[in-house]
Amino acid sequence: MKIQPDNEKLSYSGRIDWSNPKEPVFVYPCTSVGMRFTGNELRVSVKNHGAYWDNYLGCILDGRQSAFALPQRGIASIKIEVKETKEQEHEVLFFKRQDACHEFAFLGVELAEGAELLELPGKPERKIEVYGDSVSAGEVSEAVEYAGKEDPEHNGEYSNSWYSYAWMTARKLNAQIHDIAQGGIALMDQTGWFHDPDYIGMETAWDKIHYHPELREEMAWDFSRYTPQAVIVAIGQNDSHPEDYMKEDPDGEKAVTWRNHYQSFLGKLREKYPSAQIICCTTLLEHDEAWDQAIAQAVREMKDERITQYLFQRNGKGTPGHLRIPEAEEMAEELAGYIESLKIDGWE
């Protein structure tokens, strides 16, 4: 029994390219499709387009999580073991573990003959959106034995957006999430680490579905499709590359330029989301506190009571490597508590 991607009983989340309803394209981490079904057979098909790293499809079937390697280019048809249950009903979530190191088209699933596709519960009313880098994407999060340490050698196998602080925060808040996160990205073009040597910044990527030039032509996002009540801006970690000018001269021309661009970015978000609470932060990943001070100044000068800054207890001092699962949990617990304290309009 073939379930097409445009079946109304499938539940999607994230910025998705719906240009071809039979092949919706997943780009950002945390992008997902969920379903409930009967029967003991399940096969999923995706068409992958990779740029770097090894690429994986995330899957949670009846609460059990697994990952499946994808070819760098081409179609993967993956048979997934379905264990018998007393109810004979199953729930599965397929999701994007990684950022735009790759993108894939979801081609649908196959169930056993005579199986039934069931309705899923409605989505939460709460919605958050995150703008961030590799930490927000959950990069290298599964390397738990390296908590508090530099990253191990890897090729994408430890990256898992399910264990990002971003998705953890959304689950704690019972909220939908769009995770606009890309490893290595900084605020401005020609800084950071993403798309070396022609670095692409969040100023370019933030309003796009497709933004990686090696994968597909740029495509604008239709902001009317999703309106978050809370927006997290976790930018400022990678902006010190190739020059840490904020640390060296926080009142210098380059530092002033960055703060102006940061305020401009916040202003663009405010234009899209007039009523949203915008929370500005960095992460536990080690960085100079001059960047947090710059964010504080930018937020203060905005004079918008619904734009605030949050500093974590171990802000910029938690780890020299990427956040592992327990460190992301620490961030999520703090951030969810802070967001709840803001008493956001429309949140019960």
UniProtKB/TrEMBL annotation:
Protein's UniProt name: Electron transporter RnfD
